[in-house]
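Revision sheet: structure tokens.
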Amino acid sequence: MILLSDPRVAAVPSSDDGDPLIDLRELPELRLDGRAADPDGAYARVRRGVAERLLAAQRALPAGLRLLVIEGYRPYQAQLDIFLGYRDELRSRYPEWSAERLHRETTKFVSPVEVAPHSTGGAVDLTLCDADGTELDLGTAVDATPEASANACFTAARHIPAAARRNRRLLAGALRGAGLVNYPTEWWHWSYGDRYWALLTGATHTRYGPV
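Predicted:
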């Protein structure tokens, strides 16, 4: 399992091809959830290349199933606040951890800002729902922490119901088939064009840098 704290991620050369941010609220083919909505609407924006791949993934799903997008672009300061908040929560819970372990464990759930996929507009958090918008069971809530879920948030977790495993396979098959990669500690987190994507796919550099 490659974590976002792995030095190989930060070592990927960062470049940006200028692909614009697209507002998913303007794409009726995709369903957007408002739980992560912010006043500026950043949550609804992703790079055009990501939007195109989400549309391809939607078309690959069985009839009656929909992608339910929860969050796309996340500004630098919002990413930093989430990282520091979760790090401090872990430090309070596990005061015996070394600084190195604390950083590593924090990155299982929140990316360090210097390599954060969401801050490039290349990442998206999403789940599955039916035609009426009712979410399917994927084993945990979106954004369940490793501690709260006993690691059931890990994409390959086995200690979840069989139906949830099937739903994760459906989601993963559609998204991987469209060219996105998953962060393995978060079944809901997928990206394209960022450093993590570049490392996993063997790309020589990113398509997207921080916005």
